Amino acid sequence: MSLAVEDLRVYYRTLRGDVRALDGVTFSLADHEIMGLVGESGCGKTTLGKSLVRLDGRMRHVGGTVTLDGRELPIGEDARMNEFRFAEVSVVPQYAMSAMNPTRRIGRMVRELVGSRGIPFASVRSELDRRLALVGLDAEVLERYPIELSGGMKQRMVMVISTLLNPSLLVADEVTSALDVSTQRAVATALAGFRDRDLVRSMIVISHDLSLVYQIADTVTVMYAGRLAEKGPTEVIVERPRHPYTQLLISALPEVGVRYGGKRLAGIPGSPPSLRPPPPGCRFRARCPLAYGKCAEQPPFAEIEPGHAVACWRAS
Amino acid sequence: MTPAVVRLDRVSKRFRVGAFGRQELLAVRDVSFELRAGEVVSLIGESGSGKSTIGRMILRLTAASSGTITFDGTDVTGLRRGALKEYYRRAQGVFQDPFSTYNPVFKADRVLAMIRWSYFPDVGEQAWRQRVEDALAAVNLNPELVLDKYPHQLSGGQLQRLLIARALLLDIKLLVADEVISMLDASTRIDVLNLLADLKERGLAVLFITHDLSLGNYLADQTVILRRGSIVERGATTAVFGDPLHPYTRTLLASVPRLGSKWTDEPLDPGPCRYHEVHPEGGPPLAEVAEDHFVACFRLHEGRKCG
Questions:
Q1: Strand locations in chain A, DSSP E?
Q2: CB-based contact B188 A212, cutoff 8 Å
Q3: Which residue from B minimizes the CA distance to A217?
Q4: B217 CA to chain A: closest CA distance, Å?
Q5: Which of B190, B261, B276 to mutate to test the interface with A (most CBs of A within 10 A)?
Q6: DSSP states of A102-166 as a string?
Q7: Could you tell me the pTM of the whole model?
Q8: Which one of A98, A126, A266, B56 is most buried, by most CB atoms within 10 A?
Q9: Contact at CB, A271 and B189, closer than 8 angstroms
Q10: Rounded CA gap, B251 and A182, in Å?
Q11: Closest residue in A to B145 (Cα–Cα)
Q12: Where is the ABC transporter domain (chain B) (predicted)?
């Protein structure tokens, strides 16, 4: 087991009280696992990804632990996390388009970056070239400025930089959302390739697009309003989801081949609850067609079969 | 067959780019297609394919460089002032980012009031309220939940539907929907899609601009696939998606992530094909390969599929 997250709570400070963006999240990642993390905007999936790398000024670590390869990550302490960042935990941010320094040639930027970690550029140079070839980039991009690259090229460049030191955990946040479909396939395949070649031990792929996650992930975790709704092997989540939210989410996806005239899909009525503070009980209760009296009590995130956990009274 | 509401005839758009505008970029090249009443046409292409430019030219937000765009028989490319305002009474657009469409200083329903100030100054208070309620009902919004609220108090889906309601206050025949749902969540985007389908049932012509093939497929009667400003394939949606003939269309379709079929089971078409090599800019003319199915591909005469 490479990553274990135990009852993690991260709140955002606002003038009108705390927003409980992550409210008791527990899961683990096996070696070699690619976990897809899906959910609506505001459900806390980006917050979860960021908590494992760097909490920004508004975020507060309220409770819970994160253990990576047997060592506890000091996620609440920005300075102590420096030792882990980039080397052990790395991130491909949501806006890779703006993740690179526009005033530097890319090669020089990488030189400065590894230099800041006390690593001579020459020692990683050959590996860098090899990785560039792996994602289909020419080594010549190192001589260019970020603005000279297309969106897909920039995204792949950032992936190469993020994984250069073979981190144990890679967090990829919406890496393909800004890309065209044909580029998206190339980037997502390259991402899975890093794991296949053992360059990263495990990966969390955050996306709002379940069908993209389905392509590359081994397991899928569905989040709703700051908590985990369901986690299980990809095939199980897609073919026989047990949480009503997962079921409705999948049935709302238009597929190639489904036409409005033949099969009219339906969305999920209502909207997610405010997390300042969240309502008691199951958070999906107000939108759930199966809600009943017991849902006033918060359901535990419990395993219903090996590797398949659901937070729903109806499922257990 | 119902007459066309909008007809594009060999429409092109050149942008001046580079220092002092010395270079030219042909963003849209000789594009011709029609939109009929009660029909959804989806315009599908990747970034830079010119799909939004076409939508903007139809709405006269960008001037066409050549070609004609006719709306109900009149060429709209030369409309000025009063005539243009009358055109907007019948043709409206909704765009990608609902959050930046609203002025955050004012309440969201001001966009509805502005329609009244511009177009219906003579309508009385009572009658106007009724119209607003009808328009909101048409987009499945509860007036109590959306009126008298600021934009930040509403969700993206609500804001987007409010903009469609705004368009419905006018007696529109054409709605240009440019990536209207790409910023919405999966649980609400399907509702906006169904709403567009309802508008079609009411007899509107809808131009649905998207980069997402599965969304285009769900809704549209006609599909137009754009690549680098040119149409590479167009026709009935069932024909284009059911029997894609252009290698570009096939690559796009193979790249769409879907539940239930993995990319690894479905290799990409081997490239490169003659289309890409010989004519990096522009290609052969569209040829009709079947009823209501047009393809621009050299290989059509040499046996059906290339790649």
A1: 3-14, 17-29, 34-38, 59-68, 71-72, 89-92, 169-173, 202-206, 219-224, 227-233, 302-305, 308-310
A2: no
A3: B262
A4: 6
A5: B190
A6: TTS-HHHHHHHHHHHTT--HHHHHHHHHHHHHHTT--GGGGGS-GGGS-HHHHHHHHHHHHTTT-
A7: 0.85
A8: B56
A9: no
A10: 7
A11: A270
A12: 6-253
pLDDT in tens, B153-179: 888 888 988 999 999 999 899 999 998
Over residues A220-235, the mean pLDDT reads 96
- Alpha-carbon dihedral A72, A78, A81, A83, rounded to 10 degrees: -150
- Kindly determine whether residue A41 and residue B185, on different chains, have CB atoms separated by under 8 Å: yes
Cα–Cα distance, A47 to A298 (Å, whole number): 22
pLDDT at A310 over 50: yes
Q: Which tokens sit at B209?
A: 């601009």
Rg (CA), chain A: 20
| Residue of chain B minimizing CA distance to A150 | B47
Reported ipTM: 0.78
Partner-chain residue, chosen from B194, B217, B251, that has the shortest CB–CB distance to A256: B217
Mean pLDDT of B260-266: 77
The secondary structure element, H or E, covering residue B1 is none
Domain at A1-88+167-183+199-256+266-316, CATH homologous superfamily: P-loop containing nucleotide triphosphate hydrolases (3.40.50.300)
Residue B178 bridge partners (DSSP): B209
- Quick one: pLDDT band at residue B261, thresholds 50, 70, 90? confident
Q: CATH 3.40.50.300 occupies which residues in chain A?
A: 1-88+167-183+199-256+266-316
